[in-house]
Amino acid sequence: MPRVTTRIALATCAALPDLDPDDAPLVAALRARDLEVESPVWNAPDVDWSSYDAVVVRSTWDYTERPRDFRWWTQRVGQSSRLINPAQVLTWNIDKIYQRAMEEAGLPIVPTIWMDPARNFNARAIHTRFPAFGEFVIKPTISAGSRDTGRYDASKTPSRALAIQHVKKLLDDGRHVMVQRYLKNVDTVGETALVYFDGELSHAVRKAPLLEGPYREEDTEGVLYKEEVMSPRDASPAELEVGQRVLDALPRLMQGVEQPLAYTRVDLIPDDEGNPVVLELELIEPSFFFAQAPEAVEKFADAIVRRL
Known about the structure:
Layout: E1 6-12, H1 24-31, E2 35-38, E3 54-59, H2 67-80, E4 82-84, H3 87-94, H4 98-104, E5 112-115, H5 123-127, E6 135-140, E7 150-153, H6 157-172, E8 177-181, H7 186-189, E9 191-197, E10 200-207, H8 217-220, E11 230-232, H9 237-253, E12 263-270, E13 276-282, H10 296-305
Parallel strand pairs: 1-2, 1-3, 3-4
Antiparallel strand pairs: 5-8, 6-7, 6-8, 9-10, 9-12, 10-11, 12-13
Helix pairs in contact: 1-10, 2-3
């Protein structure tokens, strides 16, 4: 009898038809396990997703530009193939409003003020929602890679004026907005990304700060992602404790979802007292920084194989 080949799709975007270079070792690791691996574009109209035994979301980095289409895609693929992570997880993680649920579950997040475009905020109402002092960050609740995000200084009138313009533009475009204090310790400590496969810590990396000033549209026009400066890091006991709390809370945050997830990335930054708080919970298409932790490739490949 002819040999039956197991086919795996590593979903990507049109700008990265061969995946992000960091994922190249994953392709090799899966093929070494006798799997047929392809990298179809997630929103290409001619892809038969049912022809794959599993679809792993990888470099779909433009989904934030069309979140409604991406939600529909996750549901369709989840019904015709095995989607990793599951569709319910992906759709829950699209909008950073999920952080409200995390805070309600007792997890530490960056203090955030939320602004809804349906409220029709005028400039004065926007201004009153900014911190009275210090620096702060404005970002849409659906974004990735620091796109459409800016850093402002509450003590400087021109900076506050630019911040109002930024919020107004986002709200006028129908986008929900987050206003967060800029936690200064990130300038020296950076972010810590904790990477988990099958609920087990694989490795940690340091991400250097990305935000340097106000949002400027020309900085991100035509740019898929801002380039990140990464280096290996040993996570502190406090960071590991928060990361484990996040993993332990996932069954409560997303009931009925298979646990543990194939992959999870928890991004932490230190607050003013140095305590780690969650900046992002990445469950859709996070980079795993295999260049900084080559041994992690095998762990992720094994996690995928266990779900076939």
